[in-house]
Amino acid sequence: MADEELKPGDFSTGNEFKEEERFQYTKEDVTNEKELEKAKADYSASDLQVLEGLEAVRKRPGMYIATTASAGLHHLVWEIIDNSIDEALAGYCKHINVYIHKGNSITVSDDGRGVPVDIVAKSGLSGVETVFTILHAGGKFGGEGGYKVSGGLHGVGASVVNALSEWMDVTVNRDGGKYFLRFEKGGHPVGHLKRIGDAEGRGTTVTFQPDPTIFTETTVYDYDTIQRHVRQMAFLNGGIEITLTDERGEVPVTETFKYDGGIREYVSYIDQNKIAVNPEPVYCQGAEEVTLADGVTKERIYAEVALQWTDSYSQDGIYSFCNNISTKEGGTHVEGLNLALGRLINDYARRAKIIKEDDANFKAEDCREGLTAVISVKHPNPQYEGQTKTKLGNSEVRKIVSTVISDGLERWLDENPTEARAIVEKIQLASKARDAARIAREKIRKSALDITTLPGKLADCSSRDPEVCELYIVEGNSAGGSAKTGRDRETQAILPLRGKILNVEKAREDRIWANAEIGNMITAIGGGIRENFDVSKIRYHKIVIMTDADVDGDHIRILLLTFFYRFMRPLLDNGHVYIAQPPLYKIDYKGSPYYAYNDAQLEVLKKELGLKPGHPFQRYKGLGEMDAQQLWETTMDPKARKMIRITIEDAAQAEKAFTDLMGDEVAPRRKYIEEHAKFVKNLDI
User: Fold this and answer.
1) Is 6 buried (19+), middle (13-18) or exposed (0-12) by CB count in 10 A?
2) pLDDT-based confidence at residue 684 (cuts at 50, 70, 90)
3) How far is the C-alpha of 307 from the C-alpha of 544, rounded, in Å?
4) Mind telling me the catalytic residues?
């Protein structure tokens, strides 16, 4: 997500730049600003606002969908799809259709039971109007509700989408009739639910148009983003057929996703370009009835796990879900996996005499190296840590997952001795590499790169507040010199890179620790690596990759992103990594420089300046062509710069992308180049 979107005509001028005026904020300015922000002293009951119905959602949309940028726009689609998926979890829905219409309205239809159309006693409204206009209304609160298991537990999904839409149409086929209700202007019903005809079967169809006054950044849906989400839902709910159609082009694009193998096919999809040690994923499943914390309520909890070891060195291949919600921070289901995995692998290795009597057991990280695992738990009353539902907290899940894996994996190891031995031997190699990495780390600590001594190449900033500090990782000593001279020394640190760093996708950890450039980054950032990485200890909250706009610069950028993904993943999960966007073009006109960041901006700039054809302009091929002043005003000044913030919405898709582009297999890279070559412009070789 960009700090600021790059738009045609949004170019920088450098004629106001003065060294002595760069930093103008003083303590007095801050004090005056705080005085202006103070609320009035005579605060009384008349100042209290009571927001009714969906008004609160429109007033504070970020409380419900986190952001009104592109991610929030797509979140509307997830909420409606989740309602259909919940019907599938309840055992009633087999087909879901998703349409992206011209104008970027969305339709989601399913063949589930259909939203109830009779009157809800408590609201006095039809079930449809209740579900789509009242927050925290629905059948997903346990007890005698309409759903035993669901992803949306708060009953706000459909009503929030309605509140943030310009209009919404809901059609329900149920009990032999077809019912319709339209909502406009942020969820206001146009009349009441009406029966408009007869209908066979059941199901719900929802069509909505996001409100451009809410989503001011963009209302354009990204097909690839929706495709990835739809595919993931199909993987996690084996046997469900989901069809996605994009009607916006001259020829509609339609894809259908249906995976009878469920999460086993999900693991195979993630690993398709890796060499598998066990070609078919190990599949474990089971259910257990437990008594919940109240000591009375009994609920049945279902867990399934698919595991496959590959030739990868990654330890980050565990993907966990509860009720189809990605729990990217893990939780008790992942803890259950780790408990069972370590015990079973070590027991088998000792029985097979791979671990000798006096040898130490394998560590958990050894067992996870090269492992791709998908854990999916269905729980009628999940408890998440935090509002974002990213970490599962139910203690009873730990034992259930551990038991399911213990039963399934132990049986598989005994029945497949050849593959089992190959897996354990791979884990043994990982253990030896870990010992070698430990020795390499000790050497580094005793060298000039000791963890308490910052790298000599680092030009650090004077502030010690990580929230305001930025680390620029700059390609080349020349650009690094300009960056050091032109930077804000209070908050901006510069770390020049010499050449290309190691491709960590193909290297074991001992080689990585021995690499000087990587050692410099590890020490400068300060959070450690891999399972020991602590994002709370990083020294900079913005890690900015600043490379040339050419092939070598792109390669360095992807090498750095691969390193962060594999060894400092929380940096990406928490949005601390950025890519600087230096301008591509400079035009000197009437004594002032003007900058454009892409071809479209260049053309707009020429028109706005009224330039005649043939007016000279400069195309930058590298950061080293800019002096300190130009680099500051175009690429590093927080008031003018353009930066892309790197985020990971789909970890499994990111895993596959890094493997395809940076792994040993050539075919996936060739395919990617063939598919994307037509989009390449200004190629510098």
Assistant:
1) middle
2) very low
3) 35
4) 475, 548, 550, 552
